[in-house]
Every structure is written in C-alpha cells, then in structure tokens.
Amino acid sequence: MYSLIRRFLFLFDAEMIHVFSLKMLSFASSTGILRLLLKKRVIAPVTVMGIEFPNAVGLAAGLDKNAGHIDALAQCGFGFIEVGTVTPLAQPGNDKPRLFRLPADQAIINRMGFNNNGVSSLLANIQKSDCFRKNKRQCILGINIGKNKNTPLANAVDDYLCCMQQVYDYADYITINISSPNTPGLRELQHGEGLSTLLRQLKNKQTELSGQNRGYVPLVVKIAPDLNDAEINDIAERLLAEKIDGVIATNTSNTRPASLKCKDVAAEEGGLSGLPVFDISTYVLKQLVTALHGKIPVIAAGGILSPRLAQEKINAGASLVQIYTGFIYSGPDLIHECAKNID
Q1: For residue range 179-236, what is the model confidence (pLDDT) as tens digits?
Q2: I need a labelling partner for 128 at 20 to 30 A (CA). Which of 40, 64, 276, 285 fits?
Q3: 156-167 vs 119-128: helix axis angle to the nearest 10?
C-alpha cells in the first residue's frame, strides 16, 4: 500500500509534501487510525550506552527537526527517534528549493541548512507529546544539536553548550552535529585540536549537569562520510581521549558517485543520502570501529534500504542503525522488517 501512496506523494514538491506527510501522520496517530494500519513495534531489546532500546532501528535526525511528530513516528516501529538538528535560535535555513529526490537512485539531496524553530520551541513540543508525558521510556529520544549559521566558528561551542543545557533533562542521549555539509565551515569542527577542545568543554558540561542529580545523558558525535583514513583515525583518538559515549557514522555526503542515474538532480548542491552512500558510509563505519577498539559504540546511518543492508551495518560493527531516506522510499514496513531480522 505504501508504494501506491508514495507514487502519489512524489508528484509534488519534496519539501512541501514532507511537511504535509508529517502532519497527516500526526493526524492519523491522534485519531487512532495509524495504530490500526501499522504493525506493532518489534520488541528486541538491545542495551547501548547504558540505555535499553526496544529494538536496534532508529530514525535519523533531520526528518522531525522540531520534535513536532514524536508520537506518530514512535508508532512507525522505531526503537528510538532522533529529533533536530536544533539550534539555540530559530533560523529559516537555506533558500528554497533545497530538498530533491533521485527516485531512480533511491536517494535524496538536501541543503536545508539547519532550518528549525529554535530549542525553546522543540522543548515545548516534546513536553506536549504523549511519549514524554506518559512514559518517556516508551520512546527513546535523541536530541541532535548544532550551531546557528551566523555564529562564528570560533564561538560554536557556546551554541552547543546553550542547547545542551536546555535539552539535557529531555534527552536520552544528545548528538553533537559537526558534520552537516550545509552550514558553512561546520565540518572544520571535526578536525584537530579544535575538535578536542569542543568535546572537552561539552564533557565538562555533562559532568556538571549529571552532578546536579539530573542523571547521566550520553554524548554522541555525528561524523561525515567524506573522510580519509588518517582523518578517521584522528577523530577516533580524540573521541577516546575525551571519553565520548557514542558516535554516529555517518551524515550525508558531498560526493556524487558516477553510478547516479538522475544526473540533472545530482548536480544540485547539498548532502546526498540514500542507497548511493551505503558503501562509503559503511567504509567509514568499518574504519572507525577498528580505530575505536570496541571502546565506544557506533550507530550506523547511511543507505539502509533493506533488512540485508541493515544487517551489513551490524556485521561491520555497529551497535544500532538509523534510517531516514529508506523510510521515505519504503515506509514503516522497512522499519519493521529491519528490526525483526537484525541479529
């Protein structure tokens, strides 16, 4: 049934239908219709970073930037949901159009630019959600934080600390997004002593907040797929040195594989996600797992469009997987099948 729905949805502008679809999903959830249409969430618990996840398949950040649709998405079978990226202040993001489909490639290109309503709005939405009000643990929630576009790179840590302070009591884990290709200069934060300094200050804040009887909320870093071996090894060393709790491999890619069929759309600027990035993201995953010596768990994202590909990420050393583009192309059945078949 979803393939028929997708055929209709893909007739319209990608960003417009994205917003519309989330609203319809939430409407179906609030009326009880969604629960009747979807299979029950697969319960196959896995403990990572001290958190018990109902299953190993999560929603990657970017789909629900403002946490306005948590309840509906939780009914789609995900073991955990990551919302954001959120910034301290609301910002409109980059000019439209900024979201493009490559149907023949089962891929998406986006240059959204951290468009979001700001951290205060995100927290207000979380507080209103049934998942949070009734029993937060029914919905393991990651909150992905970033810096505002107008904040100088030298002051980026201030934005991350501001967001971290505010979301700490609402998140099961917090993701530090330093790898989006759509905020100028952001990926520079992945490298060298600047990365160590940023992580050290965030870990100090984590220690301060957990010492206030607010619990221990793990810190996760999301990295890019466009890294060479030396860069991966350097990042791994710095993550280990600063005792970061987890890492997500990977974000979207600036590369354009020669195999892409939708050549015209492929020329658009932005981050590529979906099936064409599976190989490069899995390569980074394998290199990272080796460099971390099993001391930090890795969450795999990038190109998962079937249960077999989800299992390949697990076989490569991932503890959990995240899906975004696959959810757009295959719907909730993909989540159910991946969660059911992962060993």
Answers
A1: 888 888 888 888 888 899 999 999 999 999 998 878 999 999 999 999 999 999 999 9
A2: 40
A3: 20
Q: What is the pLDDT of residue 134?
A: 58
Query: 221 vs 2, 6, 24, 94, 177, CA distance in Å?
Result: 33, 32, 32, 24, 6
**Residue in 26, 129, 179, 180 annotated catalytic:** 180
Residue with tokens 């946490």: 67
Provide the domain limits for residue 19: 2-341
- Kindly write down the DSSP assignment for every residue of 255-301, as one continuous string: ---TT-S-HHHHTS-SEEEEGGGHHHHHHHHHHHHHHHTTSS-EEEE
CATH code, domain carrying 12: 3.20.20.70
Query: In total, how many domains does the chain have?
Result: 1
Q: How many other CB atoms are there within 10 angstroms of residue 326's CB atom?
A: 26
Q: What is the DSSP string of 306-342?
A: SHHHHHHHHHTT-SEEEESHHHHHH-HHHHHHHHHH-
How many other CB atoms are there within 10 angstroms of residue 121's CB atom?
Answer: 15
